[in-house]
Every structure is written in structure tokens, then in C-alpha cells.
Amino acid sequence: MLPAGSLAGRVAVVTGGGTGLGRAMALELGRLDAKVAVLGRRREPLDETVAQLDGDGFAVQADVRDPDAVAAAFDAAEEALGAVTTLVNNAAGNFLVRAEELSPNGWRAVVGIVLDGTFHCSRELGRRVIARTAALREGSGPRERVETAARAPAQPLCGADESAPPAERGGANAQIVNVVATYAWTGGPGTVHSAAAKAGVVNLTRTLAVEWARYGIRVNAIAPGPIDTEETRERLWPTEEIRDQLLRRIPLGRFGREEEIAHACSYLVSDYAGYVTGDVLTVDGGSWLEKGMFGS
Ligand code: COA
Fold this sequence. Notes:
Blueprint: E1 11-15, H1 20-31, E2 35-40, H2 43-52, E3 57-61, H3 67-81, E4 86-89, H4 104-139, H5 143-151, H6 166-172, E5 174-179, H7 183-186, H8 192-211, E6 217-224, H9 230-235, H10 240-247, H11 258-269, E7 280-283
The structure holds coenzyme A.
């Protein structure tokens, strides 16, 4: 667990922040003193998350598939909380289906939320941070000075540098965390739409990490394994038998907890991960490595 105040000065947008892992990540960012806007399609869960936040929060309704709605949501979040420094692309859609039975519209719905949505939100954060970096550049003389500033951590390891102007804090130290899945690289029979889209997001993570490093934007991903929540218990392992079968295939012998994903997210957002970019942090108890061909 990071020390209190670790994320002071951050203003985060968490997509799909009203429920599940999105809510857990939003609450943990807030506990560490980030201001947090939760973005999603349904108002009620967003308001509930904001009510539980420790610090300043904001709920904004938008569908990540709609780039204009995403831009308007970022405007509203910035109006309420200040310049956005941090984005968690968590919004997702998924359902089990055989590829030959998946309709073009079903494919489009999931790829639209996961891949297009991640791009729309990332582009929105990127454009804003780049514009702020450019403004800083104009205001502070030679280009080299600003580029150097963008590459250096703008904040001390713990807590924010309150003396730095907001543009500098946002322009020189911004972060994107994408939520993917290990089937992005193993393939995911039964979830071809989601697996293909998550593979795209892994590539987006690495591409943007390099392209936007010059603006001080770090881009990373988390690949959560089987996390025990009310929803997964209901939808994915509803019986003791399925549960036990699954548990036998998790090397660490237990399901993950929401807070373990939230801690991973906070770490990647924090300056403790100041030299980490373009990476995927797998938090799955070793599940994706377990093949069990000869027993273990
Ligand atoms: N099996 C097969 N097809 C399905 C489906 C299912 N369980 N659920 C949706 N679809 C298809 C629909 O039939 C439709 O295709 P069609 O017009 O050819 O019939 C298409 O997907 C779009 O469905 P719709 O419900 O109109 O889309 P939406 O944009 O409102 O919903 C989804 C998006 C499909 C992802 C929806 O499942 C959803 O919102 N889920 C909640 C979030 C979620 O899945 N979270 C889990 C994250 S791991």
C-alpha cells in the first residue's frame, strides 16, 4: 500500500469507474489524495462511487465509443477538478460467445468499447497534456529547457510539488493505465472480440509509451487474472465445482482481490513507477503461465 498523499496533485479520469475494478481503482486513487472523475454510461453507480471517495470527486456520463462525448466529459472533469493528469482506461464490454455465432454488431460493440474507447480517451488526455506542455514551452524560453523538464519527475516521490504551476504538473507528469487481460497474448477462445481488442490495447500501450514519452506521459497496462467479486462469482464461477476447478489452475491457489488490482494501478500512476512505461503488469497469481501438461 502506498503512503497517504502519494498521489496528491493528480487529477484522474477512471472509465467504467462506477462498478467493479473501476470503482476499486477510483477509490484507491482517491485514498492516496488524487482527485477523481469517474466516467461511465450509467449515472447511478457513478454517483455512488463519488459518494464513497475520500477526496474531491466528480461523476460524468459518457459512452467511450463516442469521441465527442469523451471530449465533453474531459471538459466537464477539468472544469470540476482541474487539469487531468491521469487516465485509467477500464471501461469494457464482454460476453462469452462462439466466434461463428458472433454478429458483426456484437463484435463492433465490444471492440468499440475496449479498443476505440481506449484510443478516444487516451487521445483526449494526450492532446490536453501536449497542449499544456506547449504552453509551458512558450512561457519558459528555450525548447530544450522544457523538454528536459518534461523528462524529469515533476513531483517529489511522495506528494505533489505544490509550488509548480498546474500546467507544469500536468504537462510534465501524466500517466495512462490500460486494463487488459492475459488472453491478449494467449488468445481467448469464447471471447474473440475482447481478446482481439485487448491485444490492440497492449499494442496501443507500447506505441503511445514511446510516442508520448517526450511529453512526460507514461503509458502502462495491468492484466488482472481471476478476481473474486460479486459479479464474477455470479457470472463466471457460480458453483463450488467450477470454483474448485479454477482454483486448481491458479499457482498461488486463490482468487485475486479487487484491492490488489487497485494497488497495482496506484503504483503505476505514482512516481514510484516513474521509470516504468510501455509495460504490462500481470496480476494473476501466475494463472496464465500454468499449463499443467505434466502435472505440478
Ligand atoms: N451474446 C451474444 N451477443 C450479444 C450478447 C451476448 N451475451 N450481448 C450483446 N450481444 C450482441 C447483441 O445481440 C447486439 O448484436 P445484434 O444487433 O447483432 O443482435 C450487439 O451485441 C450489441 O448489443 P447491445 O446490447 O445493443 O450493445 P451495447 O452497446 O448496449 O452493450 C455490451 C455492450 C454488448 C458489451 C453489453 O454486454 C454490456 O454493456 N455489458 C456490460 C459491461 C460488461 O460486459 N462488463 C464486463 C466486462 S469484462
